[in-house]
Amino acid sequence: MIAEISAGFSSLKAAKDMVQAMNGMQTAASINDVKLTLQGHILEAQQSLFAAQEAQSSSARRISDLEQEIVALKDWSAEKQRYQLHDIGRGAMAYVPKLGMLDGEPPHWLCVRCFGQCQKSFMQFKGNGAGNQTTAQRGLDNQYACDICKASFRVSYNTSPNADARKRREQAAADEENADHMRDSTP
Predict the structure, then answer these.
(1) Is the dihedral of CA 153, 150, 115, 79 positive or negative?
(2) How far is CA 159 from the centre of its chain?
(3) Whole-angstrom distance between the N-terminal and C-terminal Cα of the chain?
(4) pLDDT tens-digit profile of 130-165?
(5) How is 55-67 classified by DSSP, letter by letter?
(6) Which of 157, 170, 151, 60 is nearest to 109 (CA)?
(7) From the CB of residue 112, how many other CB atoms can be counted at a distance below 10 Å?
(8) Do 96 and 83 form a contact (C-beta atoms < 8 A)?
(9) pLDDT tens across 82-126, in order?
(10) 3-state SS of the chain: helix, strand, coil percent to 5?
C-alpha cells in the first residue's frame, strides 16, 4: 500500500514539473506534447491511489474478520470450560456440563467430534431401535445422533442426559459424604 501511495505522489510531482515546464514553452506543438504527458502522469497517479485505497480497504476487511474470529475463539474458550468429556455408557463418549454448570439449560450431551471443531452440537434422541426389528433383535438401547456431523451412539435404554446428570450428582454427593466420613474417622 505504501508503494502505491508513493507511486501516486511521484506521478503528481512529475505532473507539477510538467506544468512548470509548460510555462516556459513557446510553441503550441510543444504545449500539446506536455499536456499529453501530463495527462498520462495524472492517470498513473489516479490508478496508484485507487490501488492504495483498495489495498487499505482489503486490509481493513481482513482486520475486521480477524477481530471477529478472536471474539468467537474467546467466547468458545469460556464456553468449553463448562464441559468435561464423560463416558456415558457402553463406550460412548460425550461432553457433558460440569456439575453446577448447567446455567439454566436442561441436562444434555454434546457431540465429541463437533466439540473438537469448536461447535456446540447437542446429541439428539433418535429412538430405540432400527426399522421393524423386534425388541429382542435391537435390544433395549436408545440411539442418539448429532444432526451436524451425523455421529451417533447407542446407550442403555435407561440412559439419557437427565438420568446421566442425576447419576453424576448422586455420585458426587456420595463421594463428598465418603470424604467427610474419612475425615471424621481419621485420628
Answers:
(1) negative
(2) 32
(3) 76
(4) 555 555 555 678 889 999 999 999 888 888 898 888
(5) HHHHHHHHHHHHH
(6) 151
(7) 19
(8) yes
(9) 999 999 988 899 999 998 888 889 999 999 999 999 999 999 998
(10) 60, 15, 25
**Cell numbers found for residue 175:** 463421594
Residue with cell 441436562: 107
* pLDDT averaged over every residue in the chain: 84
Residue position matching grid coordinates 508513493: 6
Give the three cell numbers for residue 54.
Answer: 483498495
Which among 101, 95, 92 has a CA at the least distance from the CA of 169? Answer: 101
- Which residue's C-alpha cell is 439449560? 105
User: Cell numbers 421393524 correspond to what residue?
Assistant: 132
Place of cell 433383535: 137
Residue (of 89, 100, 99, 96) closest to 110 by Cα position: 96
Query: Can you say whether residue 113 is alpha, beta or left, with left for phi > 0 and alpha for psi between -120 and 50 degrees?
Result: alpha
CA dist., res. 80 & res. 118, Å (int) = 8
Half-sphere exposure of 106 (CA within 13 A, CB side): 7
The residue with cell 498513473 is 44
